[in-house]
Description:
alpha/beta; Rossmann fold; 29% helix; 20% strand; globular; binds alpha-D-glucopyranuronic acid
Amino acid sequence: xxxxxxxxxxxxxxxxxxxxVLEGVKTAADWQARRRRILGYLEEExxxxxxxxxxxxxxxxxxxxxxxxxxxICRQVNxxxxxxxxxxELKALWYLPxxxxxxxxxxxxxxxxxxxTSFDPDIYQPASEADxxxxxxxxxxxxxxLLEQGISCLTAARNDFFPDSExxxxxxxxxxxxKEAELTPEHREYTAISAWAWxxxxxxxxxxxxxxxxxxxxxxxxxxxxxxxxxxxxxxDLRFAGVVSNDSGCxxxxxxRDHHANAENLERITRTFHRWFxxxxxxxxxxxxxxxxxxxxxxxxxxxxxVLIASASEDVWADPFNEFRCAKQVGEVYRLFGAHGxxxxxxxxxxxxAVIGDRVAYELREGKHDVTPRDWEVLVEFMKxxxxxxx
Length: 391
Ligand code: GCU
């Protein structure tokens, strides 16, 4: 650990420098043009374009009921999207606190299907998930705790927006916009990460239909591949008030240059997950040091809105130390806006410590690649610190 501290401060000799995002930028006004260019660049070179809003959207409540002894309500909402004669239909699950007028909301896609996030037998479980037990990932979903904190939480299954396989385009949101012949695995311009990003924006559309949600406090939260996606959609959809990237690692919040020897790298990620990135991105395999950008570029696009980067101490694959490096680096953009990012003297924390800075926070949770109650507690701590600063 001591050696890593030194690396961060002094730099390893010969360590490739992380490209600053600020080239030619001196003021917050300059940043806006630079920001647009970076967004366009990452679209072309890495994540592809997020599809547009659909022509038609409708939301209808399947059921609604009190939960956790009246602490809140839970509703299941049927979401329908249409473009020309094509339709996509899926379910969202929405927890709202019983009290409070203008409450914050966290939009978080899930890996496990809505029925995997709770034991509630009323939650729709598609036939494709019938072999999974209800509530099998319940430990990741602190619904009750969030309601106790007066926070709403809205989820839907990532596979409903892009089934996570190479043939996934056929069943993805891209089928609303493209003919079947354009949905083959060769069409890498239509990426899963951009399809999931679209899904997050639709959850936000839904959140904003309820006047009890404070439209200035809707956050996007994602774990791992969805942590990469949370950063990507947060960069595009400025209605999101804050971003949580949990264990997002390679191509998420982790600096690619000089990564941990056992961490994921571009070669491993692009070989396994073709569908996540446009084909052009493969050019950087084994050449990360030559990339004109690094992942601080992606995370910087959240600024000046708050961002929480969460790592787990045993999650070497996602490279916690390089996620921390990234959290430190993005302070350069927050400073244009009079915020500070992480404190200048912030050091890589010990497991189960968090560094809550000025609009940027970093958490190192003890344990494995996962989302645990502790991660939700740190998010709430960060949200509270932001509210105190705002007063
Ligand atoms: C794999 C992948 C990671 C990804 C993770 C996940 O481990 O290599 O890049 O973040 O899956 O989404 O769980």
